[in-house]
Structures are given as C-alpha cells and as structure tokens.
Amino acid sequence: MKGLIHLCYRKLIDASSQKAWDKFVFDDTHLEFYMKAQYFDPKGKHKTLQELVTNVPNASQIHGMVSTAAVGYLRQLNDIVPDITNPYGKLCLPFKRFKFEIIHSHIHRKAEHKVTIYFYSEPLTWIDTIGHQLLVAYGDQREALANGEEVETDLITLQPFLNISSVRNQ
Questions:
Q1: Which domain of life does this protein belong to (predicted)?
Q2: Domain that holds residue 69
C-alpha cells in the first residue's frame, strides 16, 4: 500500500470544447468576464485579462468573481470530477474542492477566452500502480487493509492533466 492520496484534475475549457457542459461554462464565464471587466475598467481602455491585471488595481479579483458563473455548473456534477472514468466507463472520482482560473480572455474576442478548473479529489487509499492505472479504494481504508479486511477498489487511469497532488504514507 502506497498511502493516502488526493488527485488533481485540470480541465481546460476554451472555444474548441465540444461537450455541452463545457460550452455552457465557456459561454457563461466569458459573459461574466465581460461584465467584470466593465466594472473594473468602465472606460474600456483594457481589452484582455492581462491588461486589466497589469493596469487596474485589484483586477486580479476577476478570477474569483468570474468563478461564480461556473458554480451552478459545478453543482450539476454532483461532486464527481468530469472526464475521469473507471474501466467500466463510469465517472468515479469524488471531489469537494476546486479552483477556477482564467488563463486568457478578451472582452470582444470570445474565441480567445480560455479557463481552467482544478478539481481536487476526496481522499483515496492508493494501494498499487498497475501499468498506467492507480488501484485505489475510496476514503481512508489503510486501517481496514492493515487488518486484512476486504475493501472495494477501483482503477483510475493516469492521463494528461491528472496528477497526484498530495500523498501521506502513515
């Protein structure tokens, strides 16, 4: 047994995103960015997020303010990370925490809007690595395993943008 871990999945959303959920997040976060940009820069001198952050005091708050446009969509996920499935094709990775970030945005050129959402999993007991898959049990099952008890497991495939964000051995 390797220990207790948390995984982090980074989901990129931009104009090329194809899934309906991604498109809704894209559209609504761009609209919210547009409105917040007007709030911080009523004269419209700055067109991009970078220009705003560089030239307008407190404009770095835009990330958090725009994240509110994504919260309703995050609730629709029912605390399960999108895109990460087990071998049966079922979404399987529970999360409670996330971090929203605007990578780039332009108030008039929506196609340049790009955001990312970091999903941080709930604790998983990392039992082993099999090829490119992590054998895990949900929650802290270290004691049950140490006592020889049977625990339910799952396999999660390592893939781009999925990372072990923390580990605790004991």
A1: Bacteria
A2: 3-168
